[in-house]
Each structure stands twice: as C-alpha cells, then as structure tokens.
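Record pair follows.
FIRST:
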Amino acid sequence: MGKFATQKGNFMTTVYFIRHAQSDRFTQDDRTRPLTAEGLRDTEKITAALENSGIDHIISSPYTRTIQTVTHLAKRLGLEIETDEDFRERSAGKWHGEHFFDFIKAQWEDFSYHILDGECLADVQKRNIAALHRAFKKYRGKTVAIATHGTALSTMLNYYNPSFGYEDFIRIVDYMPYVIKAEFDDENKCLSLTEVLIVEKEYK
C-alpha cells in the first residue's frame, strides 16, 4: 500500500489496525461469536509481530472475537484492553439468503445500500472514523493497536484511499488475522499504510 501524504506533522501517531483472527461461524450471535481454537493459536502470531512495536494502548471493538484477538498481546505488554462501541462490525440486518457476497458487492457499489435493520457502509464508515478520531485526540503522538473487523476496517481504508473498493475487500476477506500499520500526522492525515501480518484462513 502506498503513501497518502508526504509532509509529516509534529506529532506522529501510529496505529496498528488488527482484523480479528478466525471466528466460529457456527455461533449466530455476532456480538458474542468467539474465535476458533485455531484462531486463538493465531493470536500468538500477532504478539510475535507487534510485541516490540512500542504499543502504548490497545483499543478493541466490544465484540468477543476482537477482544480475544488482542488478549494475548495485551497480557504480554501488560496493557488493558479498552473498548469502543463504534469500532464494531457492520450490522448486516435481517439477511435471509445464500448469496451473501452479492449483498456485499451491492453495498460496495452503493454506500447507502442496506436492508431491513441493517447498516449501509456510509454509516459504518462514519462511526468508525469518529472512533478513530477520538483515539487520535486521546492518544496523540502515541502508538495504538486497534482490534476491529473486516468490513469496519475496509471502510476506514476507503476513507483514506477512496479507490479501495469491493475487489480490495475480497482480497483481504480471507486474512484472519490481518495487521496494517498506519501513520498519521497531527492533522489526522494518513501518511502511510503498510501490511505487517497476513494469516490466510478461508472465510466461511
């Protein structure tokens, strides 16, 4: 991933975005869905990749799978896991069908598209960026790890790089966990995005 700006501000803030490890798709409740045994083992790969990165704070979506994803890292670093509701995953709504990727594509083609009781990507992006800006304000100049979700993360990447779209989302859909390092200046401009860790697991 390329650079998005060239001039650095006075207070560089570094964020490690962490998409959660493999979760148990047989658990229907999105909020309480845990990681699989394999996913839990893969969280140690996150720790190995990031334990010497100078992380000062860890923030997570309140969902079980994201908290579990950074628990091993938090224990190794002796840090508490903060949660922010706005980093949660998109609510798909009352989806009843087999062709879920058709629904996903429709959302990426029209950020206002949603179904009953669901969220459009514009709303997902708005609340995730609001949460990110709160983190910037609270931890300006620090290094922060943020545990989040595939769609939520993708809308944030699209915010900083509008060319990021459906095909880019499909490229990372099997990356669980997935870690991206992002650097921001004191005006919250994204200076760079770098892929740090990719663990491929089939999305089911």
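SECOND:
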Amino acid sequence: MSGTPKWREDFPIRWEADNYVTRREFTKFLVLVSGATFVGNGYFVLQGRREVEAERIRIEVARVEEVPVGGVKLFRYPSANDPAILIRLAENEWVAYMQRCTHLSCPVHYSAKSGRIECPCHNGAFEARTGRVLEGPPPRPLPRIVLYIAEGRIYAQGVQGS
C-alpha cells in the first residue's frame, strides 16, 4: 500500500492545472456584471418615463352613443402595442382599463352577465367599477385609464396604477 491517501487516487488534482483567477479576469467580470446591472436598471427608468409620457397623451376612444350600456369597446392606449377596454357600466358611468391581466398578461374581457372583468387563462376576476382583484391569481388591480368626456366624445388621457 502506497503512502498516498485513497481520496487522492480517486480524485487526482494536478495543482499546476488549477485555474487561478487573475486580477484582470476578476475586473472583466466586475465590469460585465456592472454593465448588465446598468442596462437592467435603464429598462425600468425607460418604463417609468413611458408611463409619464402616457399621462400626457390624449386620444379619442369613442363617441358616447357608440357604446350601449353594458357594452364595451376595445382600443389601444397609450401606444399601438397596448390593448385597452372601455366599458359603459351605466348611462353616465364609464371605465377603461389596460386589457392585460396583471398575472401573466392574458387578455381580459368584460362579462355583462356577472358585471366582472374576467381572465380566462387562470380564472382571475376583477371588479368592473374599480379594477380590484376579486379572485384568482392576479397579484394587483388592473391599471385604470383616466377618461375625459366632452362634447359627446370619450378621451383617454393617462394611466393610473400601472
């Protein structure tokens, strides 16, 4: 029996082949991680700026007579990539929300029968008047679109709670 321990025979390590991290490699790693962090934070800054810009955009969504009581109209706001839903709850009561569920961004729809906004993907439900979560996995209320009504026209002019 040799004087070498059994574990050294099973796991031979050649110390000259061991990789040491040089200061240069460590610095490269730090720069790379810092750059990725900077880019990631930049995304959130741009999202916040986009929300501020959305508050300044006012677009015409519909004419008052276009949507009957209990009816809906789909539109895009604040950009062409953002689906939204306008709901006429009563003769003079209108609400609008972003049309993406706050759980996994599935499209939501209004059910006049139940008076709720429903997400068919995971059985989520939101209250139509406030957008608050009634059931299911959504973690937060639907982002509400601020409406402005003048001269028989309905305008979207900002997003709350996005």
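COMMENT: The beta strands are 59-63, 72-76, 83-90, 93-98, 109-111, 116-119, 124-127, 133-135, 144-150, 153-160.
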